[in-house]
Design brief:
The structure is a single chain. Helix content is about 30%, strand content about 25%. The protein has a five-stranded mixed beta sheet, with helices on both faces. By secondary structure, the chain is of the alpha+beta class. It has five helices and five strands, in the order βααβββαβαα. It is globular, with a radius of gyration of 15 Å. Helix 3 links the parallel strand 4 and strand 5.
Length: about 140
């Protein structure tokens, strides 16, 4: 199945209602389609996984192009999880970012997956969030 999946790095053809549904079903978070479209449109790098004409996964990143990048929203439909699609996506994203430092937001329990690519927990990260209760539902764990 993995060889039948194409990675594309533009937003052409994305149905944002379906993209929001994928995030919900992954499960990653609940997002409004129009805000999701704006977030991906404002990102420096996007990655969409297509199985034929069907969108099955996505991710995005922000980068200064020199020192730092951060990866957000890597997710895929449950039927595609555990089949190396996430590996293909994260490797393609890291290669295209080409910065020496890459940070990512991970869903609790997925740290082992990212550790395989050299990611390590950070002790000094901090967050300023608008609504801590709502933000907790989007995968942010505040200490």
């Amino acid at each position: 199945m993995n060889n039948e999946i194409t990675l594309r790095f533009d937003t052409t053809g994305v149905d944002w209602t379906l993209a929001a549904d994928i995030m919900q079903r992954a499960p990653l978070s609940s997002r409004e389609p129009h805000k999701l479209e704006k977030a991906f449109g404002n990102s420096d790098l996007v990655c969409f996984a297509w199985h034929g004409d069907d969108l099955v996964g996505m991710a995005r990143a922000l980068s200064d192009g020199v020192y730092q990048s951060v990866i957000y929203d890597l997710c895929m439909l449950p039927d595609y999880q555990g089949k190396h699609l996430g590996t293909r996506m994260i490797q393609a994203i890291i290669k295209r970012l080409a910065t020496p430092n890459v940070v990512l937001w991970a869903v609790p329990g997925k740290e082992g997956f990212y550790a395989r690519f050299g990611f390590k927990p950070m002790l000094t990260a901090m967050a300023l969030v608008e609504n801590p209760e709502r933000t907790a539902g989007q995968g942010y764990i505040l200490l």
